[in-house]
């Protein structure tokens, strides 16, 4: 049974005009686009005229064949993110004895931090979580344990590793260590910082 035609007061979903415009821009016939997306021409026609709402798998398939994103198909606009973080805007966050300064803009797939690690804090905490980590030693020496292997990193040394590898970080010297640290963000709201136990979240 065919879906009913939208009435005069009905709003077409944003995906309808986008789909037709993208297909025409690519020079694809209705039949060719439908075949690439695994749909019937009639089904795609109903999507393009707003008579049907696409499912998420359909949106993903359509975005792929048109070389765009689901957000574009839905007509969503992404809020502009700041690309620059000024030193004067880097407010410190303290957690587990460590001090964190956000060194990158928020709302991205990675988090960049400048971290100060005092001697004797969190060195016995083993961390294991999805994602990747990259760190660079700015000042002092870092004792980094990856799995069963211990590494001593001096200023200028860096490490890049899979975060599913059990890892520990500790300052080697009494003066502590300062690092640049980049990691892929975790989904849990309690894990804004994967480095240690949090008493709060970064702004």
Please render the helix and strand layout as text.
Blueprint: H1 15-25, H2 30-37, H3 41-48, H4 56-65, H5 70-73, E1 92-95, E2 98-102, E3 110-117, E4 132-139, E5 142-146, E6 149-153, E7 158-162, E8 167-171, E9 177-184
Antiparallel strand pairs: 1-2, 2-3, 3-9, 4-7, 4-9, 5-6, 5-8
Helix pairs in contact: 2-3
Q: Could you tell me the strand content as a percent range?
A: 25-35%
Which structural class should the secondary elements be placed in?
alpha+beta
Along the chain, the helix and strand elements come as HHHHHEEEEEEEEE
* Contiguous uncertain segments of 5+ residues: 1-13, 187-203
Please summarize the sheet with the most strands. Answer: 6 strands, antiparallel
Output the strand order for the largest sheet.
1-2-3-9-4-7
Give the integer mean of the pLDDT values. 77
- Gyration radius (Cα, Å) is 25 Å
What's the β-strand tally?
9
Contiguous helical run count: 5
Q: What percent of residues adopt helix (DSSP H or I)?
A: 10-25%
Terminal-residue CA separation: 52 Å
Principal-axis shape equals elongated
Please explain how this structure is put together:
- This protein is of the alpha+beta class.
- Helix content is 20%, strand content 26%.
- It has five helices and nine strands.
- The strands form two sheets. A six-stranded antiparallel β-sheet has the order 1-2-3-9-4-7, with no helix packed on it.
- A hairpin with a 2-residue loop joins strand 1 and strand 2.
- Helix 2 packs across helix 3.
- The longest helix is centred in the first third of the chain and has 11 residues.
- The termini are far apart.
- The N terminus and C terminus are likely disordered.
